[in-house]
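Morning - NAP inputs below, output right after.
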Amino acid sequence: MRAVVARERDAGIDGLTLADMPYPHAAENDVIVRVHAAGFTRGELDWPATWTDRAGRDRAPSIPGHELSGVVAELGYGTTGLTVGQRVFGLTDWARNGSLAEFTAVEARNLAPLPADVDHTVAAALPISGLTAWQGLFDHARLTVGQTVLITGAAGGVGSIAVQLAREAGAVVIAAGRARDREIVSGLGARTFLDLDAEDVRDAGEVDVVFDVVGGDVLARSAELVRPGGTLVSVAMPPEVRPADGRALYFVVEPDRVRLADLAQRVRDGRLRLLVGDVRPLAEAAGGWARRPAAPGRTIIQVAA
Ligand SMILES: NC(=O)c1ccc[n+]([C@@H]2O[C@H](COP(=O)([O-])OP(=O)(O)OC[C@H]3O[C@@H](n4cnc5c(N)ncnc54)[C@H](OP(=O)(O)O)[C@@H]3O)[C@@H](O)[C@H]2O)c1
């Protein structure tokens, strides 16, 4: 099967090549998915799990991509709840071969059924960004109706979904990002927008929750905005500065089949809008384009027509 592979740690995105790789093995409780569309995260070539398996063994050449939408091609021994031919989407394991391939093996519990009226290219943009936004806002920060949340990087994959989910939950959303993104972010439901290149994040004023996807100085400075009892949550890096009287935490997104299905329903009924950027064929995923996508929004690799 055709796949994009990463062979050398130091080669970065330019080291990705298109190759012939063996058809994946379906382990117990696995599903083999014929991939239609896949998401790729630029930073994943730096993650340890891209290069070693769970036992710490070298696993290069590895196939990147941890989001997919496609059709069940085969069931491993003991797999229940899904059927061959069914449309599915979800997250692949960080330490196994991923979704920039015609076929990939995924644990069935990491996949959710995909409704017929949600396009594969849209569904492939949902798993990491959607689950990260949900888990950050509600599982970790416990955001509730009437609270105020500051969301940084609000036009990005995670931020744009977080703005919409927080707004729907009845929170007041202060969004922060690049000036050019003001209009689009305001259209997603943010009450206020801060241009981080021209304004200090501390101008946001007191908030119950900071949801950060940017890290660095923006993360450090936003700690002082958190009200007593509030939470600073970042997915960019572990916070080094804590709110004076609040929690500060970092987390890594986890698979969640039930939540994925719920997010897909929001997409179907128009409550959640995904910003899909470049859609490229698999062959082009081995080019240097991924360093600087042409269009804003999540870059999606179209694997099958
Ligand atoms: N821990 C986890 O489980 C987890 C899960 C998902 C994502 N992440 C991480 O979260 C981060 C965001 O992911 P994403 O998919 O949302 O990325 P993305 O789509 O690239 O969005 C990031 C957004 O933040 C903006 N931004 C970045 N630095 C900025 C700055 N200094 N000032 C103003 N705006 C800035 C970007 O604008 P420009 O593009 O113009 O810079 C972009 O709009 C990444 O570091 C990713 O690796 C972590």
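Note: The mean pLDDT is 94.

O.
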